[in-house]
């Protein structure tokens, strides 16, 4: 299969590309703008492999996307390119509208042009898989879980821009017949996760004896999924999902943020003791994020029942793999972390 993957230098995209190139034998063209969140080093095991190609480009550049489709002739597009960090969207929403909304539109149009050029058999087999988030559904009370029919209720600039992109993708199916698929997934964690996100930030701060920031009272609940389980779900949806369909993806692993941070502390105390007692001493509560959704939880019954997919990792097994990966792969995170702190000193981050 020939698959065009947008955002393939990011956290989830690079895990997907490693799986497709190294284990599934697919031909992959990665299209990525290499923003602060994209890093070609995450794809170093794929570089030079037969079938792997990389195009540095902005998905909102419709002409370049049309050329990429014409030259690569994909059987499928897997669309992961996005601005993805909620705090950054609060500080400045413009890049989120550009990439998530305008970029998705430009990519849909390029994909539609390519799809119309295919012969009937290839046209029927073509798929456009749009990767989205459970944050489009808003916040839950203490009970219940998001299903595929939960009404949209986005509450941050990030989730609003992702909701807009989901609607565009569904409209391209309903209006033009493009064989689209949408997945809405819960919070991912795992190797190659950018160091500003909660779990890597906690691992790396704890290793360096720095404060571990927890928003509000730490009681916000997220439903965690190991990134390789997300990748196996995406491949299942691509192969067997119903065109026009939506699938919620989650690991049935709800945890309070404070419990996540405590688990990481305890794992590091076991795997890399610092001789100064429990790292829980570093936990620091900070002012809550505006509009911070209280609880997200995914009901993955549809993808489990219809496609036979199930998360392979529990939160406990996945988080231990993740902590061990950060301990073993300083070559990857150290330069990113130093850049980040250099940026903070210069007042370049968080909209300052
Ligand atoms: P990420 O921020 O790690 O990676 C995004 C990638 O997109 C980067 O490589 C970046 O360079 C690229 N990119 C950004 N703007 C671009 C543009 N205009 N043109 C081309 N490339 C561009 O994100 P991620 O965490 O890997 O998330 C991937 C997708 O999955 C996103 O669509 C996100 O909304 C969705 N998602 C993420 C999570 C999560 O927990 N991380 C959960 C559910 C859904």
UniProtKB/TrEMBL annotation:
Its EC number is 4.2.1.46. GO terms for biological process: nucleotide-sugar metabolic process. It catalyses: dTDP-alpha-D-glucose = dTDP-4-dehydro-6-deoxy-alpha-D-glucose + H2O. Its cofactor is NAD(+). The keyword Electron transport does not apply. Belongs to the NAD(P)-dependent epimerase/dehydratase family. dTDP-glucose dehydratase subfamily. This is dTDP-glucose 4,6-dehydratase. It comes from Roseomonas acroporae. The gene is rfbB.
């Amino acid at each position: 299969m020939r698959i065009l993957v947008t955002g393939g230098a990011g956290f989830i995209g690079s895990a997907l590309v490693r799986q497709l190139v190294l284990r599934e034998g697919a031909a992959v063209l990665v299209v990525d703008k290499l923003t602060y969140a994209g890093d070609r080093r995450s794809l170093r095991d794929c570089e030079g492999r037969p079938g792997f190609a990389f195009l540095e480009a902005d998905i909102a550049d419709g002409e370049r996307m049309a050329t990429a489709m014409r030259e690569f002739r994909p059987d499928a597009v897997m669309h992961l390119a996005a601005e993805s960090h909620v705090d950054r969207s609060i500080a400045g929403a413009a890049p989120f509208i550009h990439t998530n909304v305008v970029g998705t539109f430009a990519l849909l149009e390029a994909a539609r042009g390519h799809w119309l050029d295919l012969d009937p058999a290839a046209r029927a087999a073509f798929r456009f898989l749009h990767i989205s988030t459970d944050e489009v559904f808003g916040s839950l009370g203490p009970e219940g879980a998001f299903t595929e029919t939960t009404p949209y209720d986005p509450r941050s600039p990030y989730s609003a821009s992702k909701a807009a992109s989901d609607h565009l993708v569904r409209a391209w199916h309903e209006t033009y017949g493009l064989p689209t698929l949408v997945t809405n997934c819960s919070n991912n964690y795992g190797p190659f996760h950018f160091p500003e996100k909660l779990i890597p930030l906690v691992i790396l701060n704890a290793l360096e004896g720095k404060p571990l920031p927890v928003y509000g009272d730490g009681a916000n609940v997220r439903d965690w999924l190991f990134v390789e389980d997300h990748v196996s779900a995406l491949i299942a949806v691509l192969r067997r999902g119903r065109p026009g369909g939506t699938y919620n993806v989650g690991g049935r692993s709800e945890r309070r943020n404070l419990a996540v941070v405590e688990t990481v502390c305890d794992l590091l105390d076991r795997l890399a003791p610092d001789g100064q007692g429990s790292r829980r001493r570093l936990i620091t509560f900070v002012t809550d994020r505006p509009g911070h959704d209280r609880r997200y939880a995914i009901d993955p019954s549809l993808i489990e029942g219809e496609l036979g997919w199930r998360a392979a990792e529990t939160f406990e097994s996945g988080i231990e793999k993740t902590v061990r990966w950060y301990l073993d792969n300083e070559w990857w995170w150290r330069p990113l972390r130093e850049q980040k702190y250099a940026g903070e000193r210069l007042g370049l981050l968080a909209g300052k």
